[in-house]
Amino acid sequence: MTGLLFACGAVLVGAVIRGYSGFGASMVWVASLSLVFPPAAVVPSVLALEVVASIGLLPRVWRDVEWRQMALLLVATLVTMPLGVLALTVFPEHTMRVVVAVSILLATLALASGVRIRGAPGPGLAIGAGAVSGVVNGATAIGGPPAILLYFSSDAAAHVGRATLIAYFLGTDSAGFAMTAAAGLVTMDVLTRTLALVPVTLIGIWAGQHLFERSGGRGFRSAVLVLLAVLAAGVLVRTLLGG
Fold this sequence. Notes:
Number of strands: 0
Radius of gyration: 17 Å
Helix content: over 70%
Strand content: under 5%
Number of helices: 10
Shape: globular
Low-confidence stretches: none
Mean pLDDT: 82
């Protein structure tokens, strides 16, 4: 019961973050739920909750999604994901995580200093970001930041970038959950635990969405940069400490 209460609290926090920013929940959920549940059971649960979160958010942002760019991102990600898995046979996962975390921190600092892409991201940038995300995701399971950085380094409206990322993550998380199911990781215990956490996820999503709508997107870019920096620093610290 104590573990379940802890899990509910962690899921609620991650869901509020996801509802507000459109991303960030999985890092919170994986780090926290791994403390009380076996890691092999955490990943499929987190992927399933991410799918639930995206489904809960998508109807309210449907009209704002840049569907062509989202499709390019998603296809490029799925195509290059096997390359990331292959990279694990050449470079240790520990090294890959450090490289990714440091790269995200440096890119975030560059964006915070004023580096921007003029106009909305074009097809070439979308394909490039998706390809990088696929490699990173296959090698480290933290492939979201390249796509996130693409949108928040451009002049695209905050609500457009957020909506497009929500649709993009629905695709990547659905594919990831299907892969874990095919690998036999989706057991009855995993399904029962995940279903128990769905109501908490929906409550957090609603609260985060409400916060975003009330703010009107003001300060959204700054909040995204801070969240990216915190997540990257968390990955770096946990990796260096052997977590």
